[in-house]
Amino acid sequence: MCLSIPGKIIAIKGILASVDYGDQGIRDNVNLSLVDGKVGNYVLVQGGFAIKVLSPDEAHEVLDMLKFIEGEFNPTMGK
């Protein structure tokens, strides 16, 4: 099973973007060759590639769902 994670583009150099995944301070370099991403855009990332540009609402909806799922499988989270 593959999981695509939304992140926010914070910098671009060539076809690589520095993407911030939010609350946990995780950042990664992501290949932008498949999408037209710009600094400030949210992108859906899979296997090191941005595969879709998301609206902020779409990105936050997915992130909220991932937090909910994490809480369901890790009941000590946030305590």
What does this entry look like structurally?
- With 79 residues, the protein is α+β, with helices and mostly antiparallel strands.
- It has one domain: SH3 type barrels, CATH 2.30.30.
- 23% of the residues lie in helices and 38% in strands.
- It is built from one helix and five strands.
- It has a five-stranded antiparallel sheet.
- The longest helix has 18 residues.
- It starts with a strand and ends in a 6-residue tail after the last helix.
How do the helices and strands line up, and which of them pair or pack?
Blueprint lengths: L4 E9 L2 E5 L6 E5 L10 E5 L2 E6 L1 H18 L6
Antiparallel strand pairs: 1-2, 1-4, 2-3, 4-5
**Which overall shape is indicated by the principal axes computed on the Cα atoms?**
elongated
The side-by-side strand order for the widest beta sheet comes to 3-2-1-4-5
Parts with pLDDT < 50 across at least 5 consecutive residues:
none
Alpha carbon gyration radius: 13 Å
Q: Give the SSE order as H and E letters.
A: EEEEEH
Largest sheet: 5 strands, antiparallel
Helix coverage percent: 10-25%
Number of domains: 1
Termini separation comes to 29 Å
What are the main properties of this structure?
single chain; 79 residues; alpha+beta; SH3 type barrels; five-stranded antiparallel β-sheet; 1 helix; 5 strands; 23% helix; elongated
